[in-house]
Amino acid sequence: MSKKDFTYKQFKQQLSITYGKFNGFDYYYFKFKPDQMVTLSYEVEVKEGELMLEWRDRKQVIWRETFCEDAQGTVTAKTKHCRYSIRVEGKHTKGECRIHFAQEEAA
Question: Which of 27, 36, 74, 92 is the most buried (most CB within 10 A)?
């Protein structure tokens, strides 16, 4: 794993990462109440290489996408457990990404 000019900020349900060069992966952890609808919003800026984001609980992948260019979007899922993670994997990438979770009671 290699990181150059790598910084991250994680606060409550938000994550922001910037990197001059990133090759490898990291996990960032989040907690939610079970049985809630959670929406992950992301903004990705890819100047070089490739960035993969993966949202998962302990047993399965909820969503995964690989980015070679700038993108933004949302993904919504109903929580079953309390603990979740975001896996961020860079392949000789340069850029930044921002992730925000919003939750609401499931009907």
Answer: 36
